[in-house]
What does this fold into?
Amino acid sequence: METLIKHAKDAMKNAYIPYSKFAVGAAILLKDGTIIKGSNIENASYGLSNCAERSALFSLYSQGYKKEDIVAMAVIGKTSKPISPCGACRQVINELVPKDVPIYLANVKGDVKKTTIKELLPYSFDEVENV
Ligand code: THU
It folds into this structure.
C-alpha cells in the first residue's frame, strides 16, 4: 500500500495543471508487478480535462492490460481528508476495475482511506440492455 501511494504521489509531479494548479496522482498495481501511473491533464477548454484516475486507467488498457490484471489502485492529492474521486471517474472505475479491488484514497499528509468502487458507486449503471 505504501509503495503504491508513493508511486501515485510521484505521478503528481507529472500533472498538467495550468488552470487549477491542483495536482492529482494515481497508480495502479498489476498482477505482473507493473505499476501504471496517471496524472490529471487539463485543457483551456476546462471540460476536456482528464483526471488522474482516468489517465491511469486509459493508459493501462491502451497498453493491453485489462480488468483481471488489476490488484490495487491508489489516488492522492493535497486535500484535507483523503481525496475523493469525482463522479465521472467513479463511473469509469466502475467500468474498468473489478468491484472488490482495494482503492486507497490518500492525501499528502498521510491520511489513507481504503475503499472499493462498490462502496464509491452503489447502485451503478453497469450495462446497456438491448431491447
Ligand atoms: N481531479 C483529479 O484528477 N482527480 C480527482 O479525484 C479529483 C479532481 C482533478 C481534475 C482537475 O484537473 C483538478 O483535479 C481540479 O478539479
Q: What stands out?
A: The chain has a mean pLDDT of 97. Residues 30 and 70 are 5 Å apart (CA to CA).
